[in-house]
Amino acid sequence: MNGNLEVFPITKFLLKEALDNNTIWINKSQIIPFSKSKAKWLIENDRIDDNDVCGIVGYENNELVSFVYLVPDFLNTNDGIKKVFWCRRWWISEKHKNTILPTYTMNVALEATKNQIVIKFLGKDVEAYYRKQPFSTFSPRVRYFILFNIDSNLLIRRLGFLKFLKPVFKRIDSISLAIINSINTKKVKKNLRKVKFDYLSIINSNTWEFINEYTADDIFPKSKNHLNWQVNNNQYTQAPINNKNIHNCLISSIEKNIYNINFSVIVKNEIVGFISVLIRNKEFVIRYFLSHKDYESICIDALIYNFIKSKTTSIQTENQALGEQIRKNYTNFYTDKRNLYALAHKDINFNFSEIKITDRDGHFA
β-strand 63-77 against 270-280: which pairing, if any? Predict the structure, then answer.
């Protein structure tokens, strides 16, 4: 590797220093690991200690060339609580993809975490690497990407020769979304006449009591404080003209439109559901969908109505039952289903074979 190349872990302590001295963000590199807002949010995680790592970075001549994003979390085991690290992103610059840098950067990550790494899902380009490493696969599942309009960008990406018709397709996008939303609005509104929503920026004790009932047995434990950290909107930076932003952020925390919405579904003054969603431009990414079994259809209607009002165009979920109900029961344009599985390093002393990952596990966008 080049003599000017340096790869090193970023601990909570070093990230605090970087924020104080602005070292990451005054760098010449146009590409940065994450925004200042995301960095500040990371160090507020109640499951990270000063010496825990939250990323591995590689710089060459002050330019970012490699990055592994790590988020500390807890794992419930028979021997008590164990600390593990979610590997949420492994990025290498184009000029180094066919060098030893990708493997070297990941080796630094494994060493810094003592191999205690869990991966929620893989990109196709790294599957070959992990097949050769001591990782076990677990939690096979399906991710649903449900589109509610004719997506011209998707169409043009697949059929590039139609690019000259983009202005026409944009108009069709809007018309198709309006028609589909109108159909779905009529369907859900009649079921929501006596339903109220409690929108939350902070999870209160009553709501947490409901959430805890449905998450108490999660293998990755939840707490009110940790959930409040997870959904905190201070981690995001709104950038109305993002294409003029001086930095390109690898972790999507600077966007034209990005925020969390969290709300309880209320029937007869009782909480019957809790929903938390990440809005990222036109994406509606479900992270928590919890409902009383007798009110599941009402909670799904509540989710769809909020989706419509958010003016997003697609829903993403790894909850197969929920994805199937949305796909079958609400008018949509297209559904893409992708098979996923998770990975855990074999040095984690735990049997993952029967473990199922949910939307809410390891979701730190």
Answer: unpaired
Residue 81: the pLDDT is 93
Whole-angstrom CA distances from 23 to 17, 271, 352 are: 8, 46, 39
pTM higher than 0.90: yes
Query: Do 82 and 157 share a domain, yes or no?
Result: no
Do 279 and 230 form a contact (C-beta atoms < 8 A)? no
Q: Is residue 337 within 8 Å of residue 143, measured between CB atoms?
A: yes
- Position 205 scores a pLDDT of 96
**H/E stretch holding 309:** helix 296-310
Write out the residue range of the structural domain in which residue 153 sits. Answer: 144-339
Number of domains in the chain: 2
* CA distances in angstroms from 118 to 23, 203, 296, listed in the order given: 29, 27, 31
Which of 84, 110, 90 minimizes the C-alpha distance to 352? 84
- The CATH number covering residue 297 comes to 3.40.630.30
Same domain, 168 and 56: no
What does the block give as tokens for 310?
A: 């958010």
Are 104 and 152 in the same domain?
no
**115, 159: one domain:** no
Give the residues of the chain that fall short of pLDDT 50. none
Q: How far apart are CA 221 and CA 229, in angstroms?
A: 14
Q: Write down the mean pLDDT value for the chain.
A: 91
Parallel/antiparallel/unpaired status of strands 254-255 and 270-280: unpaired
Residue in this structure with the two tokens 């020769």, named with its chain if needed: 161
C-beta atoms surrounding 3 within 10 Å: 6
What pLDDT sits at residue 227?
96
Clarify whether residues 293 and 211 are in a common domain: yes
